# Entry
Amino acid sequence: MLKEVRIHGRGGQGAVTAAQLLAHAAFIEGKRVQAFPYFGAERRGAPVKAFARISDEPILVHSQVYNPDYVIVLASKLREVVDVTEGLKKDGAVIINTRKKPEEMGLKGWRVATVDATGVALELGLLVAGLPVVNTSILGAFAKATGEVKLESILKVVRETWSGSTGEKNAKAAELACERLVKGW
# Structure
């Protein structure tokens, strides 16, 4: 069955990389995948979107994702400028990087899970240009929240993408976020 994911972030947070890592993790599990960005003249800090599709069958659609099964939000403040639930399927879920609990997010009627991916990144010293990198953390949370990919697959892809201590820190971030995820359903 086809599952579609939309990732909201700010330029420089790793939304595009998150989509690619997620697709790669599903691919090594034998699934069919797509991952791609959507942005115009954005720059660091501007809102961006990235998409991933995961399926057991060939994926024949090649448009952006309009009706996602899952939405990942890398920066909770984006909700002030972007309707992150736009088009979200009725049984869909939102995974948000925030210190708040799911019920505090004001997203009544949606399945919401939260994790402090920023806190995890800061705890592990995952910074680029002085900013916390939250994409690997949130993927660990996504694995636990949805079951669409295994945490082990996320960890494998992260370690293949970054070698040495960088890979290990990012893998640890995914593990910690998986452990700390708070599901509101």
In short: Residues 3-183 form a domain with the Pyruvate-ferredoxin Oxidoreductase; domain 3 fold (CATH 3.40.920.10). The beta strands are 3-10, 32-38, 47-55, 70-73, 93-97, 111-115, 127-128, 131-132, 182-183. The two ends are 22 Å apart (CA to CA). The chain has a mean pLDDT of 94.
